Amino acid sequence: MVGGARCDPSSSCARVGEGLQAWRVEFGSPYAHAMRSELGAAIDRRLAGLLIIRLQRARPLLKLVPASWIVLIVAPRARRLRRSLSPVAVAVAVAVSTCALIVLIALGI
């Protein structure tokens, strides 16, 4: 709509944003599901690695046990830890961005 008038389908204003629909991903699509599960798996692996390092420092005898054996025990705990930390991470991100916005407004930028 330009100046309150409607666009007819043959005009150029009817095609505005047409290309954006080509790469839009629906939340229920297999691609979105795969990306979400891969990201969660990568975070779980990293958290499991950190938990293993912490356990080995706390109990030096665990350094004799292969890490691949410990991962089997630590993996469910890492998954629960990720699920419990996700809302906290979102809350921290919102708080930091809000503070940054307030500072920017106060500075007049």
Question: Secondary structure elements and their pairing?
Answer:
Blueprint (H helix, E strand, L loop, with lengths): L29 H29 L8 H41 L2
Helix pairs in contact: 1-2
Write up what this structure looks like:
It is a single chain. This protein has 109 residues and is mostly helical. The protein is flat. Helix 1 (30-58) packs across helix 2 (67-107). The mean pLDDT is 79. 64% of the residues lie in helices and 0% in strands. It has one domain (26-107).
Give the structure's gist in a few sentences.
This protein is an all-alpha fold. The protein is built from 2 helices and no strands. The chain is 64% helix and 0% strand.
Biggest sheet layout: none
Write the H/E string, N to C: HH
Instruction: Calculate the terminal CA-CA distance, rounded to whole Å.
Output: 32 Å
Strand content: under 5%
Estimated radius of gyration: 24 Å
Features:
109 residues, mainly alpha, 2 helices, 64% helix, flat
